DNA sequence: AAAGTTAGTTGTATGCTACAACGAATAGGG
DNA sequence: CCCTATTCGTTGTAGCATACAACTAACTTT
């Protein structure tokens, strides 16, 4: 570990700094993209949609949020008519979450403008670089925490 | 635009999803890393340190924050004795921000544990991958917004 | 059946943020 | 030299997101 090149440290610092900067800006950027949808709720809705049908606990684990936070966010989403809860027939504690038709629609429209923003931002990148960047991010996020096994 | 490979779209989606997930988790992760330092303030302090001496406006631009937000955060940092304000002799509106000795110290200790966390998370990565990941992040952040010119 | 565990909700407090209205300092015309 | 931008920063106010703790309901284990 002594001989490890100093370049690694530098790369780590850059990664750390840039990820932080990104995280910091993300809120503002997201708010600009979909001023209508309550922002965080959008994220949760997207995740609910991505894995068709998931529990509140899954959301909490995936995003490292307290269950109370998720509970309120889901309540908001439900009030907006974007998400439905179906009690699990096998276990009445569990509510399985699904996007409603309106939810899917809202998601699609937001997704579109969001994708456009990304496309503009990453338009110059080669498909190769995009693929590698995506792979790095996946690897980075997968490593970290026990968020969810798969 | 029609012939653009669908792979690009997929990569974009992955990038979007993973960056979002990261941003979402970042708060919780950061809170774990330095429970003492008010979290956001840490970020600002790091930036103040990184560019030796900057104005509140610079911080706001860099992180896409409202000046009022920065004002309060800086006030907090000052109250904690981590940052000093020096009025610019040429322009009395401007306050140049500098970390205090305590600020540098706090930053160093946090930086250390933070770096350790990153090192653990990215320990398996080759130096090459790290460098490329860092470069992608730099490129990504640089492109986006008029945060700051350089 | 009693004790323990898991899913989710609600009460409460706090942090971070934006927007708007303001004060102070400077810069640019007439 | 005043009068009007413009720029930098603060304070008032309000809202969202979040955590922690206490609680209910439902399942599980012994």
TrEMBL record, chains A, B:
<dbReference type="InterPro" id="IPR011991">
    <property type="entry name" value="ArsR-like_HTH"/>
</dbReference>
<dbReference type="Pfam" id="PF01047">
    <property type="entry name" value="MarR"/>
</dbReference>
<feature type="domain" description="HTH marR-type">
    <location>
        <begin position="12"/>
        <end position="142"/>
    </location>
</feature>
<protein>
    <submittedName>
        <fullName>DNA-binding MarR family transcriptional regulator</fullName>
    </submittedName>
</protein>
<dbReference type="InterPro" id="IPR036388">
    <property type="entry name" value="WH-like_DNA-bd_sf"/>
</dbReference>
<dbReference type="InterPro" id="IPR036390">
    <property type="entry name" value="WH_DNA-bd_sf"/>
</dbReference>
<dbReference type="InterPro" id="IPR000835">
    <property type="entry name" value="HTH_MarR-typ"/>
</dbReference>
<keyword id="KW-0238">DNA-binding</keyword>
<dbReference type="GO" id="GO:0003677">
    <property type="term" value="F:DNA binding"/>
</dbReference>
<dbReference type="InterPro" id="IPR039422">
    <property type="entry name" value="MarR/SlyA-like"/>
</dbReference>
